[in-house]
């Protein structure tokens, strides 16, 4: 396989597609599938056949606005239909070449206008199980370009130049990480893709793996070339069976097309990828625990240093990046580091995918340039809080993140800005809360999550999260005193500063940030025994002792 | 200078702390120069006085009665001392916590009773679901761990408390000592 | 300042000390009679950095480092017992005492327990957190030894000594978070496990969780000092 051959494949796919007058792209992602997208797709196929029109019906990955599903996009006119039922298939096919079906058309122009799609550029446009669809949209061009025209250090340089930072949450500069692994000694190195997405309400990585699996594989192969590794592992949680199936298919197809395997492009570079399934432990998203899990050991973290870049999988230098980070690699190699660095803010470059959930009209997947104001994401892209309720806070970064109040909606989204207000970028979960959400209860929810997901290795996290959960429960039930609040804050400090890994260190964040911005809600529960949002069921104190 | 009013209280404990207190032997005489014992299982007073300067409380809070007592004592005491591991940690009385009071009562009054097996419901106070150290109910000023704290510990600590001298408890005693 | 220099000089609690490259802060501190409290560390076993007792402050960094695994570097300024560290250590000990049913007065290790003596040396006079009082089992199926989960602090010294020194790997950890539990083999009774009856785990256990059946209350000193010698002999062989 070389660039010319790749171009030939791309051209033939484009020719095949050109034979059709219309393309009906049906979103088959989880949210749409659960509302009957498969039946809809079949109905569209038979309606297409019956009409005699030249219609191509394609199954695609997530298109984004999940709350409007099942979604169908008609190309070339780029009309998006939402809430489509199988019964309406004939109507849609009949409209091709005529007036659009007004009652099904989504009014999501604003939703899409503010977005910039890099990671999700293929989402909704390709069949994730067809490698040729990916190739037709410049897939694997970056890998072949890197192999044929660039040196490994040139690739690292380009990634460094792009300013890309780790999308898993930490925001460590990707180029720096690659450079460290590239410089590390030893002839055996590994690439690991972290697909152990575990934050409540987050599904960015799942959508990428399901909707555009080759993009992740291509990114890993480029990384392998750049740092000198010939073996990669994708660590996916077993709760993502579709992602696992799509990746498996993608790997097989890539090998068949000689885009993985030995002597790629006739060079001396070999690279292959294996899938490893995680058993759904949140802590296995932590890189040292993830490594232990791949090695077949109990998934618990280790103190760093040594960092995986120096001593990782089986003691070898290992590059670990998250799914979204790898998904950014191909476009950066293709378009140049400067192109990427031109997007975003001063110290956070490019775009970020967020999973928008909670009390918001347009729930789903969005991709926005870094630096965009939270207000634009929530009010314009998200379409604000529905049902006449008022916005209260947005939670970013999952159980490691924090709640950002309404007063701070004009904050530009970047790693540093979010950290400054007591939250984190995280992997991209964004949960919107309105006046019916009790912030103490929210903090308690996340603490319960951390408590059950703690691996139990270090004491502060193992026992501290449980004690904090108990205090939060007492507050929610109106049984706490101000002394309890003081103890809670002290525990937050100890767990944050003394825990072994990121899970424990960040577990107090939801409490700390809600205490910072919504302290009055805590006081209301404790002193006045009432829940302002009306969520917590506080019973009047009864003199029962036993 | 008038003497300080000292009370000693016995909640759910084995009285070993009181025994250890008495083990101060002749030093009790010197202590008597500083304090008057106004309430104690060791003296006749039946009513807790209105104003007590120092109260030594032995035992954990295990029953409805214990809880009432400790709250009353706190209200009428300047300096409350948790005396011994039961008062400080729950200790042996709290070993029933994982299985609950029903199982304990059954074992004591039903399974092992040779005559009239029945769980008493009058006179004996109702047990709390879990046994707790006293600081989970009221504010405690000084903690003296130990099972029991030694006579030397009592002597040093009480002399310090009565005279206002600094007191480093950890230098004297520990849990289980 | 190069990393290749064999000898490093650093300052621990105001004392200038020297160290070999690659030595841990804990090692160097103890060589210089500066005590850093530990629970999961034991000379002769690999380190896991789990108990967080040995955390120290490094000047110029806000992050606390576990001194059992953090290695020295030139010019490092280490503080081992600041107010902040002492507070954290006491809170961690409180968390441990509240986690399971540690009743010192009736424990076979009373007077010989590392948790108990740490409580005293760190100035812990009571536990502010509510006791969890979990219902836990005691495995007395072994003919010589007993495992009492009520007193286990999950330091994993037993796991490591069995795997690394005895080579039997009978012990391991099961479950997650607060439900983590030491188990023998694949969660079988200790008595019917592949245990070699060497007793090393009992000697390295810092509390009364693992004890010799022939010992009764408060009569059970432990002797983990054999480990460094054993390792030394093996290296020399």
Give a brief rundown of this model.
The complex is a heterotrimer of chains A (546), B (177) and C (237). With 177 residues, chain B is of the alpha/beta class.
Fold and architecture overview:
The complex is a heterotrimer of chains A (546), B (177) and C (237). In chain A, strands 10-9-13-11-12 form a five-stranded mixed β-sheet. Chain A has a four-stranded mixed β-sheet with strand order 2-1-3-4, covered by helices on one side. In chain A, strands 7-6-5-8 form a four-stranded parallel β-sheet, sandwiched between helices. Chain A contains 22 helices and 13 strands. Chain A is an alpha/beta fold. The termini of chain A are far apart. In chain A, helix 8 packs antiparallel against helix 9. Chain A has helices spanning 3-18, 30-33, 37-51, 89-95, 109-113, 131-136, 141-149, 152-162, 174-183, 204-211, 213-227, 241-256, 287-294, 323-335, 337-341, 374-381, 415-420, 439-453, 459-476, 482-498, 502-506, 509-527, and strands at 22-27, 55-60, 72-75, 79-81, 190-195, 231-237, 272-278, 318-322, 351-358, 364-369, 391-396, 402-405, 429-434. The model of chain B has no long low-confidence stretch (mean pLDDT 95). With 177 residues, chain B is α/β, with parallel strands linked by helices. Chain B contains six helices and seven strands. Chain C is α+β, with helices and mostly antiparallel strands. Chain C is built from six helices and ten strands; from the N terminus they run ββαβββααββαββαβα. The radius of gyration of chain C is 19 Å and the shape is globular. The mean pLDDT of chain C is 94. Chains in contact: A-B, A-C, B-C.
